[in-house]
Write a structure and sequence with these properties.
The complex is a heteropentamer, with 2 copies of chain A, 2 copies of chain B and 1 copy of chain C. By secondary structure, chain A is an all-alpha fold. Chain A has helices at residues 6-39, 45-57, 60-71, 76-85, 93-118, 121-129, 134-163, 166-172, 182-190, 196-228. Chain A has a single domain (9-225), classed as Orthogonal Bundle (MetI-like fold). In chain A, helix 1 packs parallel to helix 5 (93-118). Chain B is α+β, with helices and mostly antiparallel strands. Chain B has helices at residues 37-45, 93-102, 113-120, 135-148, 165-180, 193-199, 217-221, 227-230, 332-337, 366-373, and strands at residues 3-10, 15-22, 26-31, 52-57, 60-64, 69-70, 78-81, 153-157, 186-189, 202-207, 210-215, 236-247, 252-257, 260-265, 274-280, 285-287, 298-307, 314-321, 324-331, 345-350, 360-362. Helix content of chain B is 23%, strand content 34%. Chain C is α/β, with parallel strands linked by helices. Chain C is 35% helix and 23% strand. Chain C has helices at residues 16-30, 41-49, 62-70, 107-111, 130-141, 145-148, 158-166, 177-181, 214-221, 225-233; strands at 6-12, 33-39, 56-58, 80-84, 87-92, 121-124, 152-155, 172-176, 186-191, 201-206, 237-238. The longest helix of chain C is centred in the first third of the chain and has 15 residues, at 16-30. Chain C is elongated and about 55 Å long. The chains are: A mainly alpha, B alpha+beta, C alpha/beta. Bound molecules: adenosine-5'-triphosphate (2 copies) and magnesium ion (2 copies). The site of one magnesium ion has 4 residues of chain E, from helix 1.
Chain lengths: 231, 374, 240, 231, 374
């Protein structure tokens, strides 16, 4: 059953690559945003919070369309990026990374934020009295303590990225080998008669990959949690 | 002045408005539960930003709300032994202990890791995580962690509260060494009068967020007004003393105090060393004449100067012996039987062993106290 | 450009089977490579508007091709109607009896046998997806729309409508003939006359911004005999 | 600009109803699942965890199709429900509730689970010594302590449900007034040239609703967090 | 037997294997930090399920690993004052206090909310949340919470560790009332010898997870072997005493002990009441003849029965006075000067006020100890 065609394999590989990069690249920003939202007291906090949640609220097509308008070659940001850095996102796998990352962002931020809110500031204060500045305190105390949340956020993001379809196909289309991820491939397959078997196979592969990632993250998460548990 | 603190702050129902200065040495914060000790210490550490206040340590201003100065905690180089431990749960005991060392410049470091671990008896715990430590073990690790950060000011909030007597007895001399050997200023919160009597250079008594009294411990410990606060049986006099000689046969040390000589259990210091000796009022027996055939070895001639309120069943009799004041607590009946009154010459009888190891502290500072008092 | 030697085609998703076969033939014959992005026509057209690297666009309806044409994004000279399709009424089950499409009346009456019953008529979105638009037009033409307007179950694509019928969730559905061919859990019970609805055409055109000259060749290949055979094999009609 | 047609208003009302019910109904199950995953030590824990994450991993169409297979009138569960309880999900707004709830479930569970894992079991033990059995301990200690996580999970679920499109339309299709939620309406609008304005209006409404919910939840969350913070 | 505990359990590097039985009254667990006190208490509460063990309270088996019995904690009706507070952060102080009451049948309830709050001095904190309480305030709320659950066995793990002396002095009599008035069995962990001496019916000394000694406090406190553990200055004798009369003029109470009579500061109990009186070895002065002209009021004739090891600078002299043993700590020099040796008749001189309020406890139980000891 798992006899995938080369094209399907390409889609699988691409999906993993896209989901992996999307998770990895958005992680620092996700942590920073979670920290800001959990700890920050600034004007526009509510706005930022809303913005982060937008991709969740909007139908994916709309998000994809907005990305297309903004980051497309004709879009204001897209053209800027291309001119100044030579970075093209539209219709490239990098664009798929952007789309998945944005769609997964609210999930990641929420998970990390919950973890941040659970950190006892008294421990951070203690690190301060021992000479650690904010950055060091973050690196040695806060970050390790929120690690379970970071892992949970990362795995949510990865899973979401693996399954993301609407925004991705709208933003970067469905070009085999470049932007055709598993969900797009499944979509193409079920648009025509006789594609179901292929769709099923791809679904199975997708589940397998995501489950492997899930199990790995759970294992790491438990390990980390055990280390932290002050019990 | 080594530490200079003045803060004003208001929580819901509680307000603190306290100021004190302390010279070098150990400043004890003393007061009932909820008096504001931890609040004050937090302000010094920079963890509480009071509405109004000034904190300076050895001349450096750490906080001055008026001038808008507030040095962040990590730049204060203040070691803090918290009342509730606050160990880092994700780090091993070893990592907890080493945490502050990381951030300490090499030239500021003092105390070795191995010695501190040895002293605190936590060598077997190094690879454990704090989560499963016993209460006392946690407390010891917390002490070690603060010490190993080599601070220039040490805050200790009831550091020995859940330790057994034997462990306390091991740690107290170490704190003395920090205070005298290194000249490390220490702000020390404790409910234990013996600890304070032994360690403090200055005592600050807090009540309800206000400084009720502050001064050298000798003066405060001898103040019957403060007995209720300290527990009656702990009050007494602190005498400045000097080692005259040791008697190795009986393992006694002879001390010179202003009113005479005292034999106390052997003190491990060379003759000439300045000490402080606490004489509890409860341990002093008054006699009309030097008694004979008694196991109590010490007898200082003294003059009654003042007699506490007579409406109490127990009376504190203030004596002067040499230059020192002393206190004796006796029953009203004894007062009558001995017909004591101011001016009367008596003898203060004291067992040698009533002066325990924890009543004798090394002291370069008590002399100062002497002068301030007079 | 990413792949200089590669022709990029944006094609309506319903063409996948046939077009994959045609593209394979062209690749074998010319040694060129082709990469086809299948998606809904609306998506693809909007992407071309935003500068997508498409050389050739095959739409599932004329509206989006017209839209691009108006925007000056396609090579007007190259545009032609490539394929046609038929709209059919399918019923759940292997051997549902056929029905005669006659104008007028109530759907239940129209079916004569109450086959719709309490069930729903599966269609693609009647205001948005081509198959739905055509289906609604056909039903209106027959004067039946009013009776089924609130009995439809509309899906975002025609394959989903087919799936509803195949699973028996909806007793009847309106889909393309090409979809019905390969699904053996449904029976085509009627074919809508072509004049009942706007012509179902798949227009094709080169984009203005095409960067691969081989695209012209591929466009020509779409009219070749081999290509015709492939399209017809999937149930499409050849229009030119 | 916010001049919506009556049909669009219907879609808005329906979306709120669907998202609201989806959130409310899945909450108890979400809490239970989170507890099981965080605390349980049973065979099949990994499986359950995987199952919960499935809707995130799978393209929504696939999830919708599976729902159709299982909960359709002909599906094993669907027919059972209809026969025994007279509950019909297919083509009903209740089906939309189910689809949104399932799509939102992984988000809800993760948030709550993180909160459960942050609860100090020592407090629960203390409640035990005071005579509270497991249920009471849960109600009086655990639940209040995980409330911020529950609120976060609920708002994530609500937002997700407001935006859910693929699985819903596949499962219950688009029946105006019954199953046409905002995303379906938006989707329909952007399928035709010139539909952008309409889509934009609906998008704005959708954002407004979700933001209101978000702000409310934040406010409640802060209140709760302040009460809990043992700082 | 009221409490019967035997458990065996192993953590990473620590293993506990301890068993003890205790009658009614208060059983004190005493031992150095890390000795296993909290572990033992947790097993009794049902929070630790030991590898092997048996726990029964008043005949009811709560744990028996062999028979597979393990009553869950919430059915044990055991109140537990934790070493680290464990207040519910989301509940107000009032709700924390009331928590256990909820689950207590009306007929089991004792102690009123108002009285407990009053006693603990937490009336002004009722609407606060635990988060911002001071260390001592938290501890008091924790005590109140456990008490108000009206348990049938009370576990207290260093309940008074961070309280000031005055507060302790208020709470101790209350614990006595619980012990005697209500007959509530109490398992009490403390490092404080005065507390244990005053409260304990039975003392269990733990060392390294093993029971090193257990028995009535009188016997243990008078055992010089245990002095290092307790801090030398706290050791001494516990005498059973009975109130003979009060002297309202001098506010003294006359007690009868087996060896004679003692005057102590007034005790608030009617003549005839049985008491326990702690006489610290450090407070006892030995005299060849009854001294005169001394403020010390008490003098009991005694016979030297045993003299501690002579290689120590300080010697513990065991005396018998009436039926009671007593201890006197004196210097080696005094021993020589007074030429003390077993059999020698001496007089034990004691200040009245050396017997402080916290050295006198009510006691119905000490008598038992008496018998067991002889
Ligand atoms: N955030 C706060 N809000 C309201 N009251 C507070 C807050 N923090 C502290 N308090 C109150 O201020 C008083 C002083 O607290 P603090 O912790 O300084 O006491 P303390 O002297 O250290 O007492 P203890 O010996 O019990 O630790 C207490 O009554 C406490 O309840
Ligand atoms: N989960 C655990 N894993 C390993 N060691 C443990 C664990 N729990 C407790 N211990 C060890 O068991 C010993 C006894 O702990 P316990 O808490 O009973 O001590 P304690 O007598 O209460 O001491 P303290 O007076 O310091 O509170 C300690 O050395 C502690 O480190
Ligand atoms: Mg405090
Ligand atoms: Mg303990």
């Amino acid at each position: 059953m798992l006899q995938l065609t080369p094209e399907e394999w390409t889609a699988v590989a691409l999906s993993i690559r896209v989901a992996g990069w999307a998770t990895l690249l958005s992680l620092p920003l996700g942590i920073a945003t979670a920290l800001l939202l959990a700890r920050g007291r600034f004007w526009g906090r509510g706005l930022l919070n809303g913005l982060v949640h937008l991709p969740l609220i909007l139908p994916p097509v709309v998000t994809g369309y907005m990305l297309l308008l903004l980051f497309g070659r004709r879009g204001p940001i897209g053209s800027l990026l291309e001119e100044t850095f030579g970075i093209v996102l539209a219709f490239r796998w990098t664009g798929a990374v952007l789309a998945s990352a944005i769609m997964a962002f609210p999930l990641m931020v929420r998970a990390i934020r919950l973890a941040v809110e659970a950190v006892d500031p008294k421990l951070e204060q203690a690190a301060g009295t021992l000479g650690a500045n904010r950055l060091w305190t973050f690196a040695t105390i806060t970050l390790p303590l929120i690690l379970p949340g970071v892992i949970a956020g990362a795995i949510l993001a990865f899973a979401k990225a693996m399954g993301e379809f609407g925004a991705t196909i709208t933003f970067v289309s469905n070009i085999p080998g470049e932007t055709q991820t598993i969900p797009s491939a499944i979509y193409a397959l079920i648009q025509v008669p006789g594609g179901e078997a292929g769709a099923l196979r791809l679904t199975a592969v997708s589940i397998a990959v995501a489950m492997a990632a899930l199990l790995a993250s759970e294992a790491v998460g438990r390990l980390v949690a055990r280390r932290i548990a002050d019990r | 002045m080594s530490i200079d603190v003045g803060i004003r702050h208001r929580f819901g129902g509680f307000s603190i408005d306290a100021a004190f200065s302390a010279g070098t040495g150990l400043t004890a914060l003393f007061g009932r539960s909820g008096a504001g000790k931890t609040t004050l210490v937090n302000a010094v550490a920079g963890l509480l930003r009071p509405e109004q206040g000034r904190v300076s340590v050895e001349g450096e201003v750490l906080l001055d709300t008026e001038r808008g100065i507030a040095v962040p905690p990590h730049k204060r180089r203040i070691g803090y032994v918290f009342q509730e431990g606050r160990l880092f749960p994700h780090l091993s005991v070893r990592q907890n202990l080493g945490f502050g060392r990381w951030f300490t410049r090499r030239r500021h470091r003092f105390g070795s890791f191995a010695d501190t671990v040895e002293l605190l008896g936590i060598g077997h715990l190094l690879e454990r995580r704090p989560g499963s430590l016993s209460g006392g073990e946690k407390q010891r690790v917390a002490i070690g962690r603060a010490l190993l950060a080599s601070p220039r000011l040490l805050l200790m909030d009831e550091p020995l509260a859940s330790l057994d007597e034997a462990r306390k007895a091991e740690i107290l001399p170490y704190i003395e060494r920090l205070r005298d050997g290194l000249g490390l200023p220490i702000l020390y919160v404790s409910h234990s009068v013996p600890e304070i009597a032994r360690l403090a250079t200055t005592v600050v008594i807090l009540a309800d967020g206000r400084v009720e009294r502050s001064g050298p411990p000798a003066a405060l410990m001898a103040d019957p007004d403060l007995f209720p606060l300290m527990g009656r049986h702990e009050g007494g006099a602190l005498l400045a003393a000097r080692i005259l000689a040791h008697d190795p046969v009986d393992a006694l040390t002879e001390l010179e105090v202003s009113g005479g000589r005292l034999w106390v259990p052997e003190v491990d210091a060379p003759p000439g060393t300045q000490l402080r000796v606490r004489i509890r009022a409860r341990d002093v027996i008054l006699a009309e004449a030097p008694p004979v055939g008694l196991s109590a070895l010490n007898c200082l001639p003294a003059t009654v100067v003042e007699i506490g309120p007579l409406d109490q069943p127990i009376v504190d009799v203030k004596l002067v012996s040499g230059e020192d004041f002393m206190l004796a607590r006796i029953t009203r009946r004894s007062l009558r039987v001995l017909a004591l009154e101011p001016g009367r010459q008596v003898h203060a009888v004291l067992k040698s062993i009533a002066v325990g190891r924890r009543d004798i502290g090394r002291d370069e500072h008590l002399a100062e106290g002497h002068f301030e008092r007079s | 450009q990413i792949r200089a030697a590669e022709v990029t085609v944006f094609a309506a998703a319903s063409l996948k089977n046939a077009l994959d076969e045609v593209a394979a033939g062209w690749q074998a014959a010319t040694g060129n490579t082709v990469s086809i992005s299948y998606a809904g026509s609306a998506r693809l057209a909007r992407q071309i508007e935003q500068g997508a690297p498409a050389d050739l666009f095959i739409s599932a309806n004329t509206a989006w091709m017209d839209h691009l044409d108006a925007a000056g994004l396609i090579d007007r000279a190259s545009r032609r109607d490539l394929l046609g399709n038929r709209l059919v009424l399918v019923a759940h089950g292997r051997d549902a009896p056929p029905v005669e499409l006659a104008p007028g009346g109530d759907l239940a009456a129209w079916l004569g046998d109450g086959r719709l019953g309490e069930g729903r008529l599966a269609m693609a979105l009647v205001d948005a997806v081509p198959a739905g638009i055509y289906g609604k037009a056909a039903l209106e033409h027959l004067g039946l729309w009013a009776s089924v307007a609130d009995r439809t179950a509309q899906t975002d694509n025609v394959r989903a409508a087919l799936a509803l019928v195949a699973l028996g969730e909806a007793p009847l559905g309106i889909v393309y003939a090409t979809d019905a061919v390969a699904e053996d859990r449904v029976t085509v019970v009627a074919t809508f006359p072509a004049d009942n609805h706007p012509p179902i055409v798949y227009p094709v055109a080169l984009t203005v911004e095409r960067e691969n000259p081989a695209a012209v060749d591929l466009l020509a290949w779409l009219g070749s005999a081999a290509a015709r055979a492939a399209f017809e094999g999937q149930g499409f009609s050849i229009l030119d």
